[in-house]
Specification:
This protein has about 475 residues and is of the alpha/beta class. The protein has three domains: about 100 residues, Immunoglobulin-like (Sandwich), CATH 2.60.40; about 240 residues, Alpha-Beta Barrel (TIM Barrel); about 80 residues, no CATH class. The chain has 16 helices and 18 strands. Helix 15 crosses helix 16. It starts with 7 loop residues before the first strand and ends with a helix.
């Protein structure tokens, strides 16, 4: 929509740099989050973003005169939570005051992210053509390994995001395994196994791994504490040979679940993944353990879990702060760089800011941006609109989009719409576990299907390939 231009315009610049300034005509009424202005500075900790309000004046220099100004000290806007934490509220408002009277003229609301440089080994990038090509069949990616843990499933399920789950996925015919990490391998933002709604970033590594040990045979086989329960009237040493559940194991499992059941995530879904009793519990693992344990022939889709503001506040009821984005991304990339091999890896994230940092900091691993168009409505325009998602991906040299499967099934031509823009098209969601959903998307040429029912999807795609 076009709006009549006023006699006013707004300028942006970073002081003490040779970077050019940007000027836009007012009014500026649409959401311009997806139209970024980029500046470089040698000293980001002292970066000063200046705003100037101009009025058209034919007699003034360049045909406009400055009537108001404002300034933001960028580093000070990020200091509230310390060096390794930052607010998920990325919009900041500063006043514009008159040059002559200091009278309040208006306000500017803006968002920003600072990307700090990261030194990584000089290695050749993984070619997109090595991962996907136009003539190759759709790749099947095992969601969280062998598939997401669900109580409604009729099959015996290995704990999600575990070594055994990833190995089982390959045996069932998947091309890739998807893993979620922060930076250990875990899917959710809240760790409800603690008994409270603990955000992952509030736990130490030792605390996180202790949760897994409490459910393991190592814990069950340990000498019991001196307490009386229905199970233990007197302390007894467990035999280390058995791995089956008995009444005593059930009592310990029930006590563990009683601690978990009042947490937000459990009360919402009615279960917790990878818990002993409901599923085959496997130990929690780190990204480094996974990279060094899985054979290099197993490719990986690494989903990097970083919440958007709407996810934290609306979906998970979390406090709106998280790990500082640069520290978070650097920790993951340094771990990947430490274990570079012939393994095919691509990175996926639903956070636009994290995708920007991944693109600016490295060129080795392809990046797929998770877009929620047709799934739910996050507050960020880049994440809830397909066209805006494509624009964002092209602007930041991102290699593909991961989309909710439902729109692609109802309108298969959307797959071609994405691929014609030179982007990889991936899909996720419940309809990827329906045979017809897999068939429609595979025939439309979708590059990647992230699924729970790996064997079913692999067989359908193999059948289509044989008949084609």
């Amino acid at each position: 929509m076009l709006y009549p231009e006023s006699m006013f315009s707004l300028g942006f610049s970073v002081l003490d740099t040779e970077e050019p300034s940007y000027i836009v005509r007012l009014p500026l009424l649409e959401d311009t989050t997806n139209i970024p202005w980029i500046f470089s500075t040698q000293d980001p900790s002292n970066a000063k973003l200046a705003f100037e309000l101009f009025r058209t004046n034919p007699d003034a220099n360049n045909g406009r005169e400055v009537i108001g100004c404002g300034m933001a000290l960028l580093a000070s806007l990020k200091q509230a939570f310390g060096m390794k934490r930052e607010s998920l509220h990325r919009h900041f408002t500063i006043p514009i005051v008159s040059n002559t009277t200091s009278e309040y003229l208006g306000a500017v609301t803006f968002s920003f992210i600072v990307s700090h440089p990261l030194a990584l080994p000089d290695t050749p990038p993984i070619s997109i053509s090595d991962l996907w090509s136009e003539n190759c069949p759709t790749k099947v990616v095992g969601h969280r390994g062998q598939g997401q843990n669900m109580l409604a499933a009729k099959n015996l399920q290995v704990g999600e995001n575990t070594i055994q789950s990833f190995l089982s996925a390959v045996q069932l015919g998947t091309s890739y395994v998807e893993l979620d990490h922060m930076p250990v391998i875990y899917h959710d933002f809240l760790v409800c196994e603690t008994g409270v709604d603990s955000p992952m970033h509030t736990l130490t590594y030792e605390q996180f791994m202790r949760i897994s040990v409490e459910q393991s045979d190592q814990s069950l086989n340990a000498p019991p504490a001196i307490v009386e329960t229905e199970c233990f009237k007197t302390p007894m040493r467990r035999k280390t040979r058995t791995r089956s559940l008995n009444a005593c194991d059930n009592a310990l499992t029930e006590a563990f679940m009683a601690r978990v059941k009042h947490t937000f995530d459990f009360s919402t879904r009615g279960y917790q993944a990878n818990t002993r009793g409901a599923f085959i519990h496997e130990a929690f693992i780190t990204l480094e353990e996974l990279l060094t344990t899985l054979p290099d022939t197993i490719a990986m889709d690494i989903e990097i879990k970083y919440p958007m503001l709407s996810e934290a506040e609306d979906d998970w009821k979390m406090d709106p702060y998280f790990i500082e984005a640069n520290f978070f991304v650097d920790s993951i990339l340094l771990c990947l760089a430490k274990h570079i091999s012939t393994r095919s890896i691509f990175l996926c994230c639903f956070s636009p800011e994290i995708c920007i940092l991944l693109s600016l900091k490295q060129a080795r691993w392809p990046i797929v941006f998770g877009n929620d168009s047709g799934n739910w409505q996050p507050s960020d325009i880049r994440a809830k609109n397909l066209q805006e998602g494509i624009h964002f991906a092209k602007a930041w040299n991102i290699d593909g989009l991961a989309l909710a499967s439902q729109p692609l099934i109802f309108a298969p031509k959307l797959v071609g719409f994405v691929k014609q823009r030179g982007l990889v098209c991936a899909s996720y969601g419940a309809m990827n576990d329906e045979p017809e959903g897999v068939k429609i998307q595979a025939e439309a040429g979708v590059d990647i299907l992230i699924v729970n029912k790996i064997s079913m999807a692999a067989k359908i795609i193999a059948t289509l390939e044989d008949s084609g």
